[in-house]
Design goal:
about 425 residues
């Protein structure tokens, strides 16, 4: 399944690139109304190639390569919005970077129209061809959480082009190796091993599709096998460099907002501008985390009735929605207590309770916590100011997926997707 996702991703990126360059050539032809000479085309290729790199970043941030949720109506809406942003970026770059040597007003306008039509046309055709071509039969064996979820999820993901069957034969078998009873219930399963059938582990497929681990199979053996406690020197160094390179300019730029935020907070209730909270960090060590105050008090996580009695202020609602309240955390990133990407740090009182009620909750503390993370992007039911054990348990499944698969490339993906989350919240 993961291979299928990577294959579709490669096809979509390649076809997008072809569409953009074909659209550019057609735009030059329409603009000049003649076959353009090569030197003229090459001049535009050099300049537009730099623009296209930015456009691909916009496509990624917009979610056009998140093919797990590729739906026809979503593609149209998202692509149109992305092209609006791309047009603004192109105008800014062409008119602010004189080294390009061109300011193609008409050509750029024509190119935006043609490229949008080509991108929409080929994507919709590709989507329809996948939906129609359900040629691969899949047999799912087992009655675990992972197998039951796969039976529910796969029919809703036409991007895979799969059809679930109840019995052999099947080109692919997804099985739960922990469910011996279910394995013995399928006659002739051993013969399928010699027939070219592709066998996949249910837990691995579930992780690849959903981006989370299955908590029902967690054990000491799983943790020892999948969670690396050895320092990854190259990754750790690159991650720290990324933290400083991104956090330092962001912190300096964010200082411009501090006076306005301070005035807004003080005007509402005359309370303190900042709050400092003790949070649990890497290896269980506590550190002080600073935020703009968004509630009428300082939340310490010691809830007598399972939830805080504090309320979010009017200014705090805006600060939270825009994530401005978290800007002071950049200081924690710069001094090394936090990273830009990682599991969110929790209050000590809540950590103590979760460690008692959620198995392997403390595993999330083997790495440095972050300002944003995998769970913040994909977990939709975030716990809010209370001991929400079930929501926190679900969130842990995303945190453990990140810890298991963490890499510099994954961190970059999370950073880009965080931009999308921020923009969607500001615009909500």
């Amino acid at each position: 399944m993961v291979t299928t996702l990577k294959k579709h991703f490669s096809v979509i990126v390649a076809c997008d690139a072809i569409s953009l360059y074909v659209a550019l050539y057609i735009s030059i032809f329409v603009r000049t109304m003649t076959l353009p000479e090569w030197w003229y085309v090459e001049r535009h290729l050099r300049s537009f190639s730099a623009i296209f790199v930015l456009w691909f970043l916009v496509f990624y941030v917009a979610g056009l390569y998140d093919i797990r949720s590729a739906l026809k109506e979503v593609i149209v809406k998202t692509l149109l919005h992305a092209q609006v942003v791309n047009s603004i970026l192109a105008v800014i770059v062409f008119y602010l970077v004189p080294s390009f040597g061109i300011a193609p007003k008409t050509t750029l306008f024509i190119d935006l129209i043609i490229s949008t039509c080509l991108l929409l046309s080929w994507r919709l055709y590709y989507y329809r061809s996948i939906v129609r071509n359900k040629g691969e039969d899949v047999l799912i064996i087992g009655n675990s959480f992972a197998t039951n979820e796969l039976r529910r999820i796969i029919p809703n993901l036409p991007i895979f082009g799969l059809k679930i069957v109840d019995k052999p034969p099947a080109s692919t078998v997804i099985l739960d190796l922990y469910d011996q009873l279910a394995l013995r219930s399928i006659p002739g399963l051993d013969m399928l091993m010699f027939s070219g059938t592709n066998f996949l582990k249910a837990q691995d497929v579930y992780e690849g599709i959903t981006g989370r681990v299955t908590l029902d199979t967690l054990s000491d053996a799983w943790v020892l096998e999948n969670i690396s406690l050895q320092p990854k020197l190259a990754y750790t160094t690159l991650k720290r460099v990324m933290d400083i390179v991104i956090a330092l300019p962001l912190f300096l730029i964010s200082l411009v907002l501090y006076p306005f935020v301070a005035v807004a907070i003080r005007l509402e209730d005359q309370g303190p501008i900042f709050i400092s909270q003790e949070r649990v960090g890497e290896n269980g060590r506590h550190f002080k985390m600073h935020k703009f105050r968004s509630m009428n008090g300082n939340d310490n996580g010691e809830y007598k009735e399972g939830s805080t009695t504090l309320r979010v202020t009017h200014v705090g609602t805006f600060l939270r929605k825009s994530r401005i309240d978290e800007l002071p955390q950049l200081v924690s990133v710069l001094v090394g207590n936090q990273s830009l990407v990682g599991p969110r740090p929790e209050l000590p009182a809540l950590v103590e309770r979760y460690c008692h009620e959620i198995a392997y909750y403390n595993v999330r503390h083997v790495i440095k916590p972050g300002m944003s993370g995998w769970a913040q992007i994909y977990h939709e039911d975030h716990p809010h100011h209370g001991t929400a054990v079930e929501q926190t348990r679900e969130k842990l499944s995303y945190d453990l997926y990140y810890i298991k698969n963490r890499s510099f490339v994954l961190d970059l993906k999370i950073a880009l997707k965080t931009i999308r989350v921020l923009l969607s919240r500001v615009g909500a």
